[in-house]
Amino acid sequence: MRVVITGGGGFLGRKLAQRILRDGRLTGTGGKPETVSELVLFDVVAPPADETGDERVSVVTGDITDPDTVRDLIAPGTGSIFHLASVVSAGAEADFDLGYRVNLDGTRLVLEAARALGTCPRVVFASSIAAYGGDIPETVEDTTPVTPETSYGTQKVIGEYLISDYSRKGYLDGRAMRLPTIVVRPGKPNAAASGFASGIVREPLNGIDFVCPVTPESQMAIMSPRTVIDCFSHMHEIDGAALGASRALLLSGFSVSMGATAEALPKIAGNRRRGDITFDVDPAIQKIVDGWPKASQSARAERLGFPRDDSIEAVIQAYIDDELE
Amino acid sequence: MRVVITGGGGFLGRKLAQRILRDGRLTGTGGKPETVSELVLFDVVAPPADETGDERVSVVTGDITDPDTVRDLIAPGTGSIFHLASVVSAGAEADFDLGYRVNLDGTRLVLEAARALGTCPRVVFASSIAAYGGDIPETVEDTTPVTPETSYGTQKVIGEYLISDYSRKGYLDGRAMRLPTIVVRPGKPNAAASGFASGIVREPLNGIDFVCPVTPESQMAIMSPRTVIDCFSHMHEIDGAALGASRALLLSGFSVSMGATAEALPKIAGNRRRGDITFDVDPAIQKIVDGWPKASQSARAERLGFPRDDSIEAVIQAYIDDELE
C-alpha cells in the first residue's frame, strides 16, 4: 500500500515515517494488514537526505494550499494519509490569512483528495489541545467544552469536525487526535508558542544557556515523541467505529511545571556539561500559555488503549537516548 | 446606517426586515443607536415586491459563494450584518458539495467582507441546534458537547467557531445563536427535515390534510417566529463582550410532541375548517429527528435576557394572528 504523510519533513512526520518503515505494515482499506510499499513524505521543504535512503520512501515538496499539488500527492492507490502539515500556533496567530489557508483550506484539500479516491482511506489528523482555551479547568477531560482562543486552535477544531463529517458520509475513515505539547522536540526552536517547553531541556543538554519565557510555576500538559508516535500508530490501527460519531480524541498529557523540569534536568543529565536556565517572562507567550490546559486526562483514550507518559524524568531520559546517544 | 440581511428573501429574513424597519434604529459600530437609512435584503431570489415598498429597502439577488458579489454587498458604510443565508439541513445532506460551498465558503466570504470594512461591524449569525446530535441528553444545555451528525450542523458549528475567532481578533463583533426549530413557518414547505413541525399546524389550518412523517411521540425543541425575531434583535443590541470569548449562544426552545401539537390544534382553531392529520413514518426523516435535541435550556441565554416560548397553544395562536388574520 501507498502511505502519505503531510508535514513529512517535520519532526513528528519524520519520526512517524521511521516507525512506519520499521513496522513495514499498516491496516489497509480492506481492514487487513498490508505491506507498506511506498511512503510519501510531503512538506514545503525536503527532509534531510540521510533520512530518506529507504527505497520505499519518496519525497514530494510543494504547497498544501494548491489543489493540483494535493490531488497529485494523494494519488490513486493511496491507502492511508497522516495529515500533520500545519502552520504552528504562533505563526497562525501572527498571520491570520496564512493560518486559514494552510490549516483550514489545506486540510479541506487533503480531505477532498482522500474522498476522490473512492476507497474510504484512513486519514489520521493531528489536532491539538489548543482546542481548549479561556475559562477551562486545570485538567481538561473528554467532556470539557471545546473553546479555542487562538486561530490555530480554531483551525484544528474545524478540521476535527470536517474529519467527523467526511467519515459519517463514508468518504473516508478519519481519526483526529488532540496532541498535548510534545516534549522534547530535537533540533532548532520553531515558531510554536510552546517551544520553550522543549527548549528548557534541549538547549541546556546541548550546552546552551536557556531563557525560559514563562514563570517556573507555569504548567503544561505534555507528551513525549515516543508516546505520541505510539498514539499515531495506534490511532491508525484501531477500528474507526470504536471512536463513535465524533472522530476526535483527546490524548492524556501529564502535567509538569517549568520549574520542576529545570530541577529534574541535573538529576538525569549526569556528568554532561549543561547550559544554565534562567526565567524571564515574555508577557505575550505567558498569556498564550496561561490559556492552555495544565493537564489532559482522557478516559476515552485510556479505554481505547492509548499510551501516556507519567514522569518528566522518563521524558528527559528518552530524549537523551533517542537524540543524543 | 446601512444594514445587510443575507437570506433576506427567506421567511426569517423577511420577518427580521419588518422588525428592523419598524424599530428604525440599531446600535451602530460606535456603540450608539443609529437610524437605519438603508436595509439591503440579499438572497438567491427576490422577496415578494409588496414587502419591499419601503424606501429604505433595497434588494440584491446573487450567489453568496461569489467573492465579488459578497464584497459588493457588504460595501463600505455597512454597519451591521445579519447572516441567515444557508442551504437547509436536508439540502446540505443531499448535496454535500453545495452545503459546504454555501454554508461554509459563503459564510467565510461574509466574514472576510465584514473584516475588510475595517470598522468591526456587528455580525449576527443564525446557527442551529442541529449543532447537537447522536448520543445527547433529551434537553441540551450550555455545557452539552457540540456533536453535529449532519453536514448542515457541522457547517453551522464551523461558522460559530469562525465568528468567535474573527471577533477575538477584533475583525468584527460577531454573535451566533443556535436556533431551535422555528414553528410555525408560513408559506410552502421547504427542504428542511424539520418542516413537518410547521406543516402539522399550518396545513390543517389552511384546510389541507397533513401526513406527519414522524411518530406522535416525536418531540422537538421549538421557538415561534415572534420569539426568534425578538432574539435576533436582542442579540444584535447586547454588548458582545457579555457573551465572552465564545460568541455562540444556545437559545431555549420548549419541547412539544407532534401528538400534543395535533391535539392542541382544534382547541385553538375554533370554527375554522381544518384538514386532517395522520401519521405515516418516513424512516429517513424519523432518523434525523431522533438525533436532534428534544428540548433546549440555556441558563446563559436567560441571564442575558433572551426570551423563550412556553406553550404550543400560544405558538398556534401567534400563527393565526400573524399570518391568517
Can you tell me about this structure?
The structure is a homodimer of 325-residue chains. The first copy, chain A, is α/β, with parallel strands linked by helices and 325 residues long. Chain A has two domains: 2-182 and 222-250, Rossmann fold (3-Layer(aba) Sandwich), CATH 3.40.50; 196-220 and 254-294 and 310-324, UDP-galactose 4-epimerase, domain 1 (Alpha-Beta Complex). The first copy, chain A, has eleven helices and 16 strands. Chain A has helices at residues 11-23, 67-73, 89-94, 96-117, 151-168, 196-205, 225-237, 258-269, 283-290, 299-303, 312-324; strands spanning 2-6, 25-27, 33-35, 38-43, 57-61, 78-83, 122-128, 139-140, 173-179, 181-182, 210-212, 219-223, 248-250, 254-257, 277-279, 295-296. Chain A has a seven-stranded parallel sheet with strand order 5-4-1-6-7-9-13, with helices on both faces. In chain A, strands 10-12-14 form a three-stranded mixed sheet. In chain A, strand 2 (25-27) and strand 3 (33-35) form a beta hairpin. In chain A, 51% of the residues are buried. The mean pLDDT of chain A is 94.
Contiguous helical run count of chain A: 11
How much of the sequence lies in strands of chain A comes to 15-25%
Query: For this structure, what is the CATH homologous superfamily of the largest domain in chain A?
Result: NAD(P)-binding Rossmann-like Domain
- Can you count the beta strands of chain A? 16
- Summing up helix and strand content along with how strands pair, one would put the structural category of chain A as alpha/beta
Largest interface, counted by CB within 8 Å of the partner chain's CB: A-B, 23 and 23 residues
Question: Whole-Å distance between the termini of chain A?
Answer: 33 Å
